[in-house]
Amino acid sequence: MRTFKVGLLALVAWGVHSTLWGAWQKLENEHWKLSDLRPGWLAAAAAFYLLGQLGPGWFWYRTLRWLGQPARPLDTLRAYYIGHVGKYAPGKAMVIVIRAGLLRGGGTTATAATVAVFFETLTTMGVGAAMAVILLAVRFTDDRWLIGAAVVLWAVVSAPTSPPVFRRLVKFTGAGKLDPEMADRLTHLRYGSLVWCWFEIAAGWLLMGLSLWATARSAGFPAKLGLFDEIAFCTAAVAIAVVGGFLSFLPGGLAAREAALLELLTPWYGADGALVASIVSRLVWAVAELAIASLLYASHERSPLTP
Asked: Global pTM?
């Protein structure tokens, strides 16, 4: 087990290093330095991003409770934030391994944690794609190809989150054999229970849009939009880029997310502004995730209340 933990840590560290180093190299190739950026806006971008994760993290906690798990709010949010660093390792399984492992001591089963991760992730992506469709359809009606792309993304990621469909998928994968009570617990996943959660997750996407907006401001590139439209477009762009990166199955959506942001932001920020914003946002988000994960892990290890 000790060897496994060391190997897991090494794999995650390698993924985070590769992500940060790649983004740093791209930034240097454009002759940009972090000293050229405004630190106040960078701090705001990191804060917006971390706050934006509260909505999906709380939804994961609710899903675990619907599945009859004894998960506690603070422990669940801690596992959620720490689990983010797992997405930089190859494959998508590392996020599940980290989250489930951190909650195992509190009595949450690995099967329930895995089912909850899938449902939370797909729901979060579906809400983000839906927000992109709505914002673009209301404020950017001329970008029909972009609206169409957002609709396709929404259809792909949200279809499995329909409660009847998700219950069938869980049964099809055989999770019920590992946890015989899973089928009964999944009946708590209903549309009426999910509506308020969708709004909470949508608020998180808005904060992520604000994070991208603050990142662009840190580089000093003004947008050819009013403030409201700029934030709305940044929110839609973040949603499309993150969902697209998720579907690419690349570690952390590496390259796929930056390519999407570059394409989406260029008309409003120019080629240089779009490139710097896409690269710096990657750096800011990765550093923020690593910092909060380290703090939460270290503080929990020192706590005398830890079971």
From this structure: 0.85
